[in-house]
Every structure is written in C-alpha cells, then in structure tokens.
Recover the amino acids of this structure.
C-alpha cells in the first residue's frame, strides 16, 4: 500500500508505494482509510517523544490515529461488521476481555492496542483495527469521512473529558487552557452543555476561533492569567480543562479554580517535563479541589456523541481548517513545531 513513513525521528516523512498491508487476525478488520486527522500526538511521536512512557514507535513506522474509512477485509470471528461498512474508531483499541474492559472502561484497557503499532496507522491507505466488534463504530451516512476522522482522538477526548470527567453543568464557568485541537473541541462541547466558556491561548487567531465556537470571554495567556479569570468570574472557574500539557498551562489552570473546583487534565507533557509537574497540594486541600485525568473515549460511548453531531449540537466539522494530501503531511508537522496550525488538518485519500 501507499503510506507516509517515519524513517528517522524529526526528519521528513517519506512516501512509500510498497509498505506492506497490515495482516489481520480473526477478531480484526482491515479498514481502507478515507480520511485521517493529523494530531499533535502524531507530532510528538514523530519527534521521538514519550519514550519515558514506553510509547515510542520502532522505526520505520506509519503514524496516524484519527481515522475514518470503509471496511475492506473482515476476520473470521467478526460478527457486527461486514465489507463495505462506513466506520470510525477510537485511537486506543480495547481487548474487550480484561477486568478494566469488563467494567466498561475500554479507554484504559489493560491490553490497549493502536493501529500504528500493528502494521500501519492512518497515514497509510489501509489500517488494522483490533477486536473490531469492540472497537468499530458505524459512521452515519449523514457524516462525511472528514467529519468522522475528526472524531478519532481530539474531539472525542474533549467530549468525554468535558462531560464524563469534568461533569460540566449549565451555567458553570469553564476555563479552557490551550486552544489547539483538543482545546477548541472543549470550547465547542462545553458551550453546547450550557457552560460559560473562557478560552486561554497565546495566539489571537486561536482565541478568535474560540469566540466563533461560543466562548463568552478570552484571555491572552501570560503571567496574570489565573488572576484575570478569578476576577472575571468573581471567584474562579468551576472547571478548568487543561489541554496543552505544558508547565505554562498547568499551574494557571489550577490557580484559576474557585473553591470546590475541578481540573480535567487532557494534555500530555513534552520532552521538557517528561510527565512530572509540580502540584500545589496545600491549595488543593484548602479549597477542596479535584484533579482528574481523562484519556480518549470508549467506542461504546460514540453513538451519543454522533447523535449530538448529527443534530448540530456539536460541530467537529467547524474545526476542520484544511484537507491535505500525503505529500503535504510534512508541511503540517513543521507548522505544528512552531504552533502555527489552527483547528484540524485532515489527510484525505481521495
């Protein structure tokens, strides 16, 4: 198959015309990728980050984990899907049998799998989906493959983070730190939940986009970010959604909370922090703050999100700012290095 391949970390991807098609097992399917979002997590992996988590791909590798497409081949044990079905799926694929899956938390499965580590991700023409009956979701005819690809990681991560983990309620103040792909999705979803959203970013273009998506107020990130939010909300945010993962956003996202506030951590750290950040524990105790992590979303929860998309209540398509070819992937990754991307760039195969 044709694929954009990482041969060396930080070096431009190379187009291969003879990358081997992933080989499926009896519980798997092969998906012909029609569209794939280009996520900052792909950038981290391309940079060679996250080795401290044991999460660095052996090279050469085909990245890409926000995919939508058509079922091309079905394993002998798969019962819920057939060749030709339009599908989307979460970036993390659960086994469906471990104790964690049994309690419904497939997003943190003890045997989590990813297509890019099993023969090829969405930067190639075909991608493997493990345990398809657990992880595949039918993509409604009313939604395009580009819209489907936007749901594979950033949007659905924000959706579960805001709703299930953040438990955002109508009328609450919600401060969203970092207006990249996850952050802008969080603005859209929290607004749809009836919250009053404050968007925080260094980039004015991203703040303008957040306002377009429903943010009632924006704050240019700086030394006084937390104080500005405390003052504007007359006591602090009920919920902070931390989407960037860096030291620069971590502490302000905590300090901007009111008493009893909740922080939802969606962002992952980079090479500088390597997963370690300071925590103001006395403030946590004194104000009874809650800090909760959130990663991805289970395939079983997709139907509710898809109904919200179909009804127009939330709009991942409004975050798609460009569609690119395989040959243009390197340009997008380079722009991510300089934090110059806005919204979602989507790789399309047709």
């Amino acid at each position: 198959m044709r694929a954009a391949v990482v041969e060396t970390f930080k070096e431009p991807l190379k187009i291969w015309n003879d990358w081997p098609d992933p080989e499926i097992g009896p519980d798997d399917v092969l998906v012909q990728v029609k569209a794939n979002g280009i996520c900052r997590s792909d950038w981290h992996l391309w940079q060679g980050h996250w080795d401290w988590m044991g999460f660095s791909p052996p090279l050469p590798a085909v990245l890409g984990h926000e995919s939508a497409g058509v079922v091309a081949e079905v394993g002998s044990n798969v019962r819920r899907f057939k060749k030709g079905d339009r599908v989307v799926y979460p970036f993390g694929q659960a086994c469906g049998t471990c104790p964690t899956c049994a309690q419904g938390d497939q997003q943190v499965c003890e045997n989590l799998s990813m297509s890019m580590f099993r023969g090829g991700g969405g930067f190639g023409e075909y991608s493997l989906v493990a345990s398809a009956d657990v992880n595949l979701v039918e993509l409604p005819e009313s939604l395009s493959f580009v819209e489907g690809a936007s749901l594979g990681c950033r949007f659905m991560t924000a959706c579960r983070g805001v709703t299930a983990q953040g438990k955002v309620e109508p009328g609450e103040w919600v401060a969203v730190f970092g207006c990249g792909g996850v952050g802008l999705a969080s603005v859209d979803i929290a607004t749809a939940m009836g919250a009053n959203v404050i968007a925080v970013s260094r980039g004015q273009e991203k703040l303008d986009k957040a306002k377009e998506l429903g943010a009632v107020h924006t704050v240019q990130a700086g030394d006084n970010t937390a104080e500005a939010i405390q003052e504007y909300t007359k006591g602090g945010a009920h919920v902070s959604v931390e989407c960037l993962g860096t030291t620069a956003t971590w502490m302000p996202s905590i300090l901007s909370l009111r008493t009893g506030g909740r922080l939802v951590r969606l962002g992952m750290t980079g090479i500088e922090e390597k997963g370690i950040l300071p925590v103001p524990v006395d403030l946590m105790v004194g104000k009874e703050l809650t800090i909760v992590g959130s990663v991805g979303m289970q395939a079983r929860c997709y139907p509710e999100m898809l109904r919200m998309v179909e009804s127009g209540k939330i709009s991942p398509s409004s975050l798609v700012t460009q569609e690119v070819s395989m040959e243009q992937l390197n340009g997008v990754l380079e722009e991510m290095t300089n934090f110059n991307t806005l919204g979602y760039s989507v790789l399309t195969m047709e």
In short: Residues 154-165 form the longest helix (12 residues).
